[in-house]
């Protein structure tokens, strides 16, 4: 493999991430094929910095074990500044630092862009995102431990949408 700009020529394995403290969902892709998916769930009782440390450690392990070549995630939605948006901002930048440490490209897609590409409407709800999920991907989720909303179903759908948005935006094949 060799790097040409931010694309690596050869086999690319991309992780798309819907960052969250409750269900930080990810999906791993090789081209248009879903390779794997899951959720990193941190302990709600822990302080935010401990939760960030845990998520970053798990994500580092996944990236290294799965030979990830790119990371793409949904950008921050900063409609209102609150403690939760500050915490997500901290997680977002820790993920960016992780990518820098591991020398893998990091790309973020604005939330409204993800929704617009996936559903045709930049203001879509989580329910709308689920309705537009291809049947084959929904079946994979339904057969997994993440099949309920509380276990990350809709968050995983978002990770699928983030990847597909990145592919469409950049004409990746």
Distance between the termini: 16 Å
> What's the arrangement of strands in the largest beta sheet?
5-4-3-6-7
* CATH class (first level) name: Alpha Beta
Which structural class best describes the helix and strand composition? alpha/beta
Order of helices and strands: EEEEEHEHEHHHH
Briefly note the CATH topology name. Answer: Nucleotidyltransferase, domain 5
Q: Count every helix, treating DSSP H or I runs of 4 or more residues as helices.
A: 6
| Overall mean confidence score, pLDDT | 88
CATH-level-4 superfamily name = Ribonuclease H-like superfamily/Ribonuclease H
Largest sheet: 5 strands, mixed
Q: What portion of residues belong to β-strands?
A: 15-25%
Domain count, please report it.
Answer: 1
Helix content estimate: 40-55%
**How large, in whole angstroms, is the Cα Rg?**
15 Å
């Amino acid at each position: 493999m060799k790097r040409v700009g931010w694309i690596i020529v050869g086999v690319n394995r991309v992780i798309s991430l819907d960052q969250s403290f409750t269900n930080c969902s990810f999906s791993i892709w090789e081209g248009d094929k879903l390779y794997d998916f899951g959720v990193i769930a941190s302990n709600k009782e822990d302080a935010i910095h401990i939760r960030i440390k845990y998520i970053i450690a798990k994500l580092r392990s996944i990236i290294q074990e799965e030979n990830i070549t790119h990371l793409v995630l949904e950008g921050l939605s900063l409609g209102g500044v609150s403690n939760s948006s500050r915490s997500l901002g901290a997680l977002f930048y820790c993920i960016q630092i992780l990518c820098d440490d591991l020398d893998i490209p990091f790309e973020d897609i604005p939330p409204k862009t993800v929704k617009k590409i996936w559903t045709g409407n930049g203001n879509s709800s989580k329910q709308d995102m689920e309705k537009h999920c291809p049947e084959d991907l929904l079946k994979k989720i339904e057969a997994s431990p993440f099949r309920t909303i509380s276990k990350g179903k809709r968050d995983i759908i978002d990770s699928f949408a983030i990847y597909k948005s990145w592919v469409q935006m950049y004409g990746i094949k």
